[in-house]
Every structure is written in C-alpha cells, then in structure tokens.
Amino acid sequence: MILVGQLDSPFVRRVAVSMNIYGLPFERQVISVYADADAVRAVNPLGKVPALILDDGETLFDSQMILDYLDELAGPDRALTAPNGPERRDVLRCCAVSLGLSEKVVGLNFETKQRDPDTIDDGVIARLETQVKSALNWLDARQPNPWLCGSNMTQADITATAAFTHLFNRRGELFPESDYPTLAALRKRAEALPPFQASPFPAD
Ligand SMILES: N[C@@H](CCC(=O)N[C@@H](CS)C(=O)NCC(=O)O)C(=O)O
Question: CA-CA distance, 76 to 1, in Å (whole number)?
C-alpha cells in the first residue's frame, strides 16, 4: 500500500499512525498539495491528501474512508473504533471535533499566510480562531481515563494527538499548549509511543 501525502498534514498522519499500530507495512508518496498539485490530482481528483493506493491499484480518498477500510482489515477485536453503539459514537464524536479543528487551522493558515494581504478579512479570521478555541476547550474538558474514551487508546486519541501536534507546531503562538493542560498531557503520552514516533510530525 502507498500512503500519499506529507506527515505535516494531521489527516495523513492519523492514517500513518493507525497503520503503524495495526502493523500494516506501507510505502509513502511524499507530495505536496501546493507544490505538486498536478501529481496530487492525478491520485485524487480533489487534489487533497491523504489517499491510500492499495496493492491492486484501487485508491481510497479521505482519512475517514481510509480508516474505515483499515479497521475492516484489522478486524473487530483490534479496530481502533468500536464497531457499533455508544462507544463507536463517542470515538467518532471526538474524531469529528478534532478533524474539524484541523480543518479550521488549515483554513486559518490559508487566510493569514496565503491570501493577498489586501483581501484579508479580520472577521473571517476571528470566526476561525473562535471555532478552534471552542473545539480545544471542548476536548480539554473531557476527562481522559487515561485516554479520551476510556482505558484503551482509540482512534479518538490518534486523531486528537495528530490535530494538537499540528496546531501547536503551526499556530502555537495563537493557541498556547499551556492553556490546554489535559490535551497537552494526552499528546505527550501518545507522542511517546512507538507508532507515533515511527511517523513523526516533520521538523521545519
Ligand atoms: N476530510 C479530509 C481532509 C483532508 C485535507 O483537507 N487535507 C489537506 C491537507 S492538510 C488538503 O489536502 N488540502 C488541499 C486542499 O484542500 O486544496 C480528510 O480527512 O482526509
């Protein structure tokens, strides 16, 4: 299998870490959605990452669809998302908030760093910052025991950790990690584990 995308994307990284946990070997196609836009669109018509190219050539787009496939490969006893019921909904709820948080941070980076300065809209930026803070506060208010959804690490922890690490590396000046002590502790615990260390957030 070939995982397409860079590990500075929290969406790509949640897939890489999950594959490490499942012990699924994979190659990487490290291409940038901006610098290599044509190559990314050749894999995914939307020009987005991650994509996962299976050994028979079938290609999966979107981290949630990819994880759905990987969970199926791992089987119900090892899957990082429970198969049904309130446990599944709780993991998916945390993932939805963490994924949305990452999407807002990516949006914030676009609005502040890539836009023509004359077209920057402070109202749009303020809205994005409020949404990021609100999501962080919601996640920080959960009481990990020791993980977000109970005694076992789940996809909720992988996705939240990938999101926090991306956020604190990219926009730590706006959202200091010290303001979110619960999340900081969760992130530290997770990032110390071999599956995370095997697919690290890249140093600048
Ligand atoms: N919902 C998607 C989001 C993926 C996403 O937004 N990836 C970013 C990279 S961090 C991207 O491809 N951005 C390029 C674009 O949207 O044009 C997923 O979970 O895979």
Answer: 21
Instruction: Measure CA 38 to chain center.
Output: 23
CATH class for the domain made up of 85-197: mainly alpha
Question: pTM score > 0.90 for this model?
Answer: yes
Ligand 1-lining residues (CB < 6 angstroms): 9, 11, 33, 47-50, 62-64, 99, 106
Residues 6+ apart with CB under 8 A from 154: 80, 81, 82, 91, 147, 148
- The alpha carbon of 73 and the centre of ligand 1 are apart by a number of angstroms equal to 24
Enumerate the domain spans of the chain.
2-74, 85-197
Please give the number of the atom of ligand 1 that sits closest to the Cα of 12.
Answer: 20
Predicted confidence pLDDT, tens digits, the chain (204 residues): 999 999 999 999 999 999 999 999 999 999 999 999 999 999 999 999 999 999 999 999 999 999 999 999 999 999 999 999 999 999 999 999 999 999 999 999 999 998 999 999 999 999 999 999 999 999 999 988 999 999 999 999 999 999 999 999 999 999 999 999 999 999 999 999 999 999 999 987
Spacing, Cα 148 to ligand 1 middle (Å): 24
Architecture of the 2-74 domain? 3-Layer(aba) Sandwich (3.40)
**What atom in ligand 1 is closest to the CA of residue 62?**
20
Q: What is the Å distance from ligand 1's center to 78 Cα? A: 27
